[in-house]
Design brief:
The protein is an alpha/beta fold. The chain is built from 18 helices and 14 strands. It has two domains: 221 residues; 254 residues, Carbon-nitrogen hydrolase (Nitrilase/N-carbamoyl-D-aminoacid amidohydrolase).
Length: 503
């Protein structure tokens, strides 16, 4: 009755119930039930309701799932309450436009009340909308439905077709459930579901990459420096001593030490001849390679970068390539102005690193590096493969506070490890730091908001998963083919004359 009388309210509720499918709860069936409810509402809705239903679903989904941006903007970005709420609402409204436009297109194409609409068009359209959201205006692929399946059988499709391949399996499952419930498809719909999930389960048993080298002992250091103190000049010495103390106390016997994003809160040129020799001398006693976050200023161009530096016999750098809009750089600077206050960091308008940067070497092996937000982009992570023997991601999730975001961020990092078949080391300032296996499972992790170290053994790996070789192309191509096939079948069926009638 609720679906029939109040479809918009029902869509809002349906979007909200998808969020528990993601970390930290990980109730993965909820995503399928949520999408099934959306598809049912679209299928039963009247003319011109698709857009409203889609928009309401987006408000529920993103309103519940990414409202943490308020914490980043207001509590740590020092933006006043009214402006912070306004920015959060604008972001939620923008993200809600993607399911809204999809609903509008479903109405315009007249594919409701058809088997093809539920089983082909809506699932394929959902995945294409997610893909568009993942790159348009630099992209924001947070809460892509495939991430919710990291612990489900469907995650077996990740090394084959990436996050959008998993998402397509989720959406197909939802469409098949609704089609069977509406008796638009018979017993073979259930068979397709069994085949889909069984295939995902069997694919999870496959090792797509192989071990290539001796085990490495790694230690991730979590300093737990409060964000409001991180860049205070009087806190600088205490910050460095905190990281060194944790490293020397827990890092003995380790081959690799990883400190988080901007663990050294000063530009490289300011400490290259003073502090860094001291750090190198201190860690030389434990014979470990160190990777740490540090901002870098190019003195020739006056460009500065959010970077990581490796100390492995020599100093080498990786400059972050995919920056956070309005956080690390200001889009449309010529129109908006020259100031950027979204980060409480000196001169926070970073430049993007180049795509042709050589891989860092750590512990004697090439490593695929990413900084914070970059780990949510699968196509960007595979840029370093198959050369990289393992992956490292550093972040400062203190920006998220005690919200859902650190858990969701870790979940996406797990998906990158599974897609690539590589171990992934994730060091963060306040947690969650974790060592993740090539199957996406967490080997060990820290608790949040306390100084901690995470120590584990990893194995360098070589080889390429199908996703590393082809990226998102197969999944997006398949979604386009399903969409076109569904539209053609639907339109041909509607043009077919009834017995005794005419077209």
């Amino acid at each position: 009755m609720l679906f029939g009388r109040w479809p918009v309210m029902s869509a809002l509720l349906a979007g909200t119930i998808a969020v528990p499918a993601f970390a930290p709860l990980g109730w993965f069936p909820f995503t399928i039930l949520s999408l099934a409810a959306l598809f049912l509402l679209w299928d039963r809705g009247g003319a011109s309701t698709g857009l409203r239903i889609g928009f309401a679903y987006g408000l529920g989904f993103f309103g519940a799932g990414v409202s943490w941006v308020y914490v980043s903007i207001h509590q740590y970005g020092h933006i006043n309450l009214v402006v912070s709420v306004l920015i959060m609402l604008v972001m939620i409204f923008y993200l809600s436009l993607f399911p809204a436009v999809l609903g509008y297109m479903i109405d315009r194409c007249r594919v409701t009340n058809t088997r093809e609409g539920l089983v082909l068009i809506m699932p394929a359209g959902w995945v294409l909308a997610e893909w568009l959201r993942g790159w348009l205006f630099s992209g924001f692929p947070w809460l892509e439905v495939g991430n919710s399946q990291i612990d489900s059988p469907l995650s077996g499709f990740a090394p084959i077709a990436g996050i959008y391949g998993v998402g397509l399996a989720v959406a197909l499952s939802a469409g098949l459930l609704v089609a069977m419930g509406r008796r638009l498809i018979g017993w073979h719909g259930g068979l397709l579901l069994v085949v889909l999930w069984s295939t995902g389960y069997l694919l999870k048993q496959v090792d797509w990459t192989v071990e290539d080298g001796e085990a490495l002992r790694v230690t991730l250091v979590q300093g737990n420096i409060p964000q409001e103190e991180k860049w205070a000049p009087e806190q600088f010495s205490a910050t460095i001593e905190q990281y060194l103390e944790l490293t020397l106390r827990q890092g003995g016997g380790s081959d690799i030490i990883v400190w988080p994003e901007t663990a050294i809160p000063a530009f490289y040129h300011q400490i290259s001849e003073s502090l860094l020799p001291y750090i190198e001398e201190e860690i030389s006693g434990i014979s470990a390679s160190l990777l740490t976050g540090i901002p870098v200023l190019d003195m020739s161009s006056w460009d500065y970068y959010n970077a990581v530096m490796s100390l492995d016999g020599e100093r080498a750098f990786y400059h972050k390539r995919h920056l956070v809009p309005f956080g690390e750089y200001l889009p449309l600077r010529g129109l908006i102005g020259d100031s950027l206050d979204a980060l409480a960091v000196p001169n926070a308008d970073f430049s993007a690193g180049g795509d042709d940067q050589p891989l860092l070497r750590l512990g004697g092996y090439p490593v695929g590096s990413s900084i914070c937000y970059e780990i949510i982009f699968g196509a960007g992570v595979i840029h370093s493969l198959p050369e990289a023997a393992y992956l490292v991601n550093v972040s400062n999730d203190a920006w998220f506070g005690r919200s859902l975001a650190p858990h969701q961020h870790l979940e996406m990092a797990r998906m990158r490890a599974l897609e690539t078949g590589r171990y992934l080391l994730r060091a963060t300032n306040t947690g969650i730091s974790a060592v993740i296996g090539p199957d996406g499972r967490i080997i060990d992790r820290s608790r949040q908001f306390e100084p901690a170290t995470v120590t584990a053994e990893i194995l360098p790996r070589t080889g390429s998963t199908p996703y590393v070789l082809a990226g998102n192309l197969p999944a997006i191509t398949l979604a386009l083919l399903l969409l076109c096939a569904g539209l053609l079948r639907t339109w041909r069926g509607k043009r077919r004359p009834e017995p005794g009638g005419s077209v």
